[in-house]
Design a protein that fits this description.
Blueprint: H1 25-35, E1 40-41, H2 42-49, H3 55-69, E2 75-82, E3 85-92, H4 97-103, H5 113-125, E4 128-129, H6 130-137, H7 143-151, E5 155-160, E6 168-172, H8 174-179, H9 191-195
Antiparallel strand pairs: 1-3, 2-3, 4-6, 5-6
Helix pairs in contact: 1-3, 5-7
């Protein structure tokens, strides 16, 4: 990989900041979005393609990238807010899930209904202790369920509660929001609809 500007892209991108993206910029941004593991902000894209590229030009480029993938059944340009900053990522749509499952059925274990209800209680009522989860569900929480949710990166410790025994308080992570396509906890769906499902793949 080199630092050279692709042959088809003008080296002076400032000249195009008020017009259509120059030839090659759409393809370059598209390739970056396909290559990175994490979503990219305008600032990150600017640092990668050249700080002289105006944010307005990058936004126009992202609009073109979205249009290029609009008719694709399995890939789309997703956008969301992370810490007050908008980020973009080319991601697979839900339509590809059955094919991934068929290719490697054991790749991701299902979440049981008990695990799903536990996750839902943590998401909606955080910070929440294990005892409070057990009181809400009416049954003991299997330690393996909490271990599974932590290993998936969805649940974390929020400290201890100032009460007898100082029980650990649990909450969700930023990865939980990302994996479930949420910008914030305010976008959580209805609790009963979320927790009342049968076993699901997530």
């Amino acid at each position: 990989m080199t630092d050279k500007v692709p042959p088809s892209m003008p080296t002076d991108r400032r000249a195009s900041s008020g017009s259509e993206p120059p030839e090659g910029l759409v393809e370059l941004v598209e390739a970056l979005l396909l290559t990175v593991d994490e979503p990219l902000s305008l600032e990150a894209l600017g640092a990668m393609v050249g700080q002289e590229t105006a944010p307005e030009l990058l936004e126009a480029t992202l609009t073109r990238v979205a249009a290029r993938w609009e008719s694709h059944r399995f890939i789309e340009l997703a956008s969301r807010e992370v810490s007050g900053r908008r980020v973009w990522h080319l991601v697979a749509t839900a339509a590809v899930a059955p094919y991934l499952k068929a290719g490697d059925p054991g790749r991701v274990p299902k979440l049981s209904r008990a695990a799903l209800e536990t996750l839902a209680l943590i998401a909606w009522r955080q910070p929440i202790t294990r005892g409070e989860i057990e009181a809400a569900r009416g049954v003991a929480v299997n330690p393996q369920i909490l271990k599974q949710l932590v290993e998936r990166g969805w649940v974390r410790s929020l400290g201890v509660k100032d009460s007898p025994g100082r029980p650990e308080m649990l909450g969700t992570t930023r990865e939980f929001l990302s994996d479930f396509g949420l910008n914030s906890l305010a976008e959580l769906p209805d609790f009963e609809r979320f927790a009342g499902q049968d076993d699901i793949d997530v």
